[in-house]
Amino acid sequence: MPRTRMRWLKFILPFVGLAFFVFLIYTISPQNIVTAFLSIDVRYILAAFTLTIPILVIRIYAWQWINRSQHIHIGNLRMLKIYLMGLFYGVGTPGYLGQIMRVPYMKNVTGAPYGKLFVNVVLETFVHTLSLYVMMVCGAILVVGMLPQLLWFTILWILVVLAVFLFLVKKERGDRLFQGLVRLLIPRKVRGQVSSFTETFYQDFPRLRILAVPVLLGALTWVLTFTQEYFIVLALGLPIPYLVFLLLYPVANTAGFLPISIAGLGTREFTAIAIFTTLFMVSSADVFVVSIAGFMVTDVFLAVIGFFLTMTEARHPADAVQDA
């Protein structure tokens, strides 16, 4: 019975955010949303797209910094393709978990163990997100007088994430945990294969001080990404100051990482509306459009490119090793 409930829970959870999404459309009114979309000044959208290339260059450079510390050697162009293909899978899954599909593409190029590559992708994603958490705290402090609960939420979130990371970063603790989970959750007939996967998790694991540069570069990419979305704020003529948006929108963005929605749809918009309609004289429809249009500019556009790249890889799998 508990297993049946767990299966149902796993099935239902990803649709919680989508239920929020549909609820928001219904309560805001589709007509108001369409009106807000049509009022966007397209020139600002084009300006937002000009930041896409710098973001990609910095993101790949930061990832390569981690790769070198783990002795993973892949050409920059190949890394860019892998990142975009991973984003395609991520956009279609709860909490962007589909980004883990970078691993098999990296395996084709390097031949490195799956466990090592899995940790590489998780580590790159975590390090990139870490700087976002710092921005969240700064934003929560900025509005602590008006939204005091926001500060406690962000601090609790960050403490939990850091506690998990600091626990797992120690090989002895991580090995005991993973092997315990294998014995507890994995059927005996496939336990050996899973154990061989987890045994390579800590192969060439980088020193923590090496991660400082990727964290700083991650902060730069987030600033550029939220600047892209702020162009949409300008396109709608909303009275939200740039610095305030830069520090508060990360809270809504992080809500989109929760694995209860496809690509954060619903949870991100709900959080953004709760924050910005409380602090500024803006409509729910306008905030909803900022979130959706921003998602299309920063994620969907690149995911579409990633989709076509996956089609190319499917037709010519041998090409995956050309840049090794």
Instruction: Based on Cα principal axes, name the global outline.
Output: globular
The main pleated sheet reads as: none
**Beta strand count:** 0
Catalogue the unreliable spans: 320-324
Furnish the topology, listing elements before pairings:
Layout: H1 2-12, H2 16-28, H3 30-38, H4 42-49, H5 52-69, H6 76-91, H7 102-110, H8 114-142, H9 148-168, H10 171-185, H11 191-198, H12 212-236, H13 242-255, H14 267-279, H15 284-315
Helix pairs in contact: 3-15, 4-12, 5-6, 5-8, 5-12, 6-15, 7-8, 8-9, 8-12, 8-13, 10-11, 12-13, 12-15, 13-14, 14-15
Characterise this structure.
With 324 residues, the chain is mostly helical. It has one domain (30-148, 205-321). It is built from 15 helices and no strands. It has helices at 2-12, 16-28, 30-38, 42-49, 52-69, 76-91, 102-110, 114-142, 148-168, 171-185, 191-198, 212-236, 242-255, 267-279, 284-315. Helix 8 (114-142) crosses helix 13 (242-255) and helix 10 runs antiparallel to helix 11 (191-198).
Write a compact overview of the structure shown.
The chain is mainly α. The chain has helices at 2-12, 16-28, 30-38, 42-49, 52-69, 76-91, 102-110, 114-142, 148-168, 171-185, 191-198, 212-236, 242-255, 267-279, 284-315.
